[in-house]
Amino acid sequence: MINHPLSNLLSQTKFLENIAEQHGTPTYVYSKRRLEENISRLSSAISQSFTKHQIYYAVKANSNIQIIRTLKNEFNDLGCDCSSPGELFAASKAGLNMSDCVYTGNYESLEDLQIAYDSGAEINLDDLNSFKRLKTIGIPDYISFRLNPGKGHGQFKGIITGGKNSKFGIPKETIVEAYNVAKSSGVKKFGLQCHAGSSTLDAKTFSDITKQILKSAREIEDNLGQKLEKISIGSGFGIPYRDEEEPLDLEQLFQNTKRTFKDFYGEDNSSWPTLCIEPGRILVADTGFILTRVTGIKSSYKEFVGLDAGMETLMRPALYGAFHRVQKIGHIDENDTIIYDITGRICENTDRISEGYKMPEMKEGELCAIMDSGAYGYSMSHNFNTRPRSSEVLVDEEEVSLIRKRETIEELFRGCDV
Ligand code: LLP
Questions:
Q1: Phi, psi for residue 219 in degrees, rounded to 5
Q2: Could you say which of 264, 284, 304 is where a domain stops?
Q3: Does residue 237's CB lie within 6 angstroms of at least one atom of ligand 1?
Q4: Could you give phi then psi for residue 391, rounded to 5 degrees?
Q5: What is the CATH classification number for the domain harbouring 308?
Q6: 238 and 104 in a common domain
Q7: Which end of the chain, C or N, has fewer beta carbons within 10 A?
Q8: pLDDT per residue as tens, the chain (418 positions)
Q9: Of all atoms in ligand 1, which is nearest to the CA of residue 282?
Q10: Where are the beta strands (DSSP E) in 162-229?
């Protein structure tokens, strides 16, 4: 059995068999308790170092309304970071005050900007041209711009969002101009935001990024002749997807951030801007797994385990080469291991959950769990091969609630004239 925060749930074979029986497979299974633990741990770590802070949950990681609501119920000061009208909708349905939310778009259409503006959320803009588009709709009192600090970080090339190859943010060389234009157009208060990459486990990386952000902040403040209200260091806070990885040291991370703030703004923290973060993965990734059934075993040039969950259910391995542990449910003979490629039923050869993965012998009909699928799992799932999307359940001790029904084939065609 793998060492994981959900190990206890994974060992409850009968309980999981009942979920599979009742809700079918694949199903995303989330632990309420783990969601609560994660938001409490993060809020305690940040509040130890920063009195003025704000946590915006990045809804893109998992937009299930009950998941957002669980986080909000546990931590009432929660805000949300939304990047589309759909994410604003989810945050609002979950009971968030829109004034506690921020809209971070990129290449936004006028319609997106209108919805963001009307929602009452703060607006974080990706470019000066975004501001010019927004100006045709209205001028908010407060805005922030997204900085591209010229370099980024991240576990895979595809999730690095800072640097010369990134489509996001405003280069540090030109960002001051954006603030000057916004100020002369009537914006009164400002913040600065940066999200330079994702899935990073090394606390030091965040110190480097924070220094870059504060350097730009100083330049902006000097030019505008006024203080920034908020600094968002985005997120990118990683989780251990592998047995041998250590969790990110959050206390350390915020202590380092505090030291950097002190260096820039001095000892008196009442004059510091509010520190904002936009965590997605670290709050939800390890709270969920995909409960899936083996649908086919095949001995070819390689040994294959075929599951009813494939790249349409969890896209990360096919898209980035991401690694997720797979745990067999039920009787496990640890000595009896085989090297498998774990795949789904999709007609693409990139359809892999894992390649060369060592597992106990698997048989058709058996259940397994694809771990750490709570972030960027369901939210990136899709309908390729005309497969309806999975159901989602939330486990609260003995209680299991269906928090999203499985899609049906008919629903996939509801917009068509059939
Ligand atoms: N803030 C902004 C502006 C973001 O773009 C993102 C993620 C976050 C916050 C949350 O980052 P996190 O806490 O999850 O690192 N689909 C990829 C991850 C892409 C993240 C994109 N932006 C994956 O499956 O790993």
A1: -60, -40
A2: 284
A3: yes
A4: -90, 165
A5: 2.40.37.10
A6: yes
A7: C
A8: 788 999 999 999 999 999 999 999 999 999 999 999 999 999 999 999 999 999 999 999 999 999 999 999 999 999 999 999 999 999 999 999 999 999 999 999 999 999 999 999 999 999 999 999 999 999 999 999 999 999 999 999 999 999 999 999 999 999 999 999 999 999 999 999 999 999 999 999 999 999 999 999 999 999 999 999 999 999 999 999 999 999 999 999 999 999 999 999 999 999 999 999 999 999 999 999 999 999 999 999 999 999 999 999 999 999 999 999 999 999 777 777 999 999 999 999 999 999 999 999 999 999 999 999 999 999 999 999 999 999 999 999 999 999 999 999 999 999 998 8
A9: 13
A10: 170-171, 189-193
Claim to verify: residue 262 and residue 161 sit in the same structural domain: yes
Considering the domain architecture, whether residues 25 and 70 belong to the same structural domain is answered as: no
* CA-closest candidate to residue 161, choices 233, 221, 108, 226: 233
Count: domains in the chain: 2
Task: Look up tokens 């251990």; give the residue.
Answer: 240
Please state the pTM of the whole predicted model.
Answer: 0.98
Kindly state if the Cβ of 61 falls inside 6 Å of ligand 1: yes
Q: Tell me the CATH number at 208.
A: 3.20.20.10
Asked, for residue 172, whether it belongs to a domain, the answer is yes
In the reported structure, the alpha carbon of residue 219 is separated from the centroid of ligand 1 by a whole-number distance in angstroms of: 27
Question: Are residues 290 and 274 part of one domain?
Answer: no
Q: Which domain holds residue 175?
A: 32-284
Residue 208 CA to residue 257 CA, distance in Å, equals 9
Do residues 288 and 377 lie in contact, with contact meaning Cβ atoms separated by under 8 Å? yes
Q: Are residues 245 and 313 in the same domain?
A: no
Instruction: Tell whether ligand 1 has an atom less than 6 A from the beta carbon of residue 56.
Output: no
Q: Are residues 47 and 173 in the same domain?
A: yes
Instruction: Report which protein residue has its CA nearest ligand 1's atom 23.
Output: 376
Question: Which atom of ligand 1 lies closest to the CA of 380?
Answer: 16
Asked whether residue 1 is assigned to any structural domain, the reply reads no
Distance in Å, CA 59 to ligand 1 centroid: 9
- Residue 58 CB–ligand 1 contact under 6 Å: yes
Claim to verify: residue 160 and residue 293 sit in the same structural domain: no
Domain boundary among 284, 309, 339: 284
What is the distance in A from the centroid of ligand 1 to the CA of 399?
A: 31
Alpha-carbon distance of 323 to 240, in angstroms, equals 10
Q: Based on the number of CB atoms within 10 Å of its own CB, is 36 exposed (0-12), middle (13-18) or buried (19 or more)?
A: middle
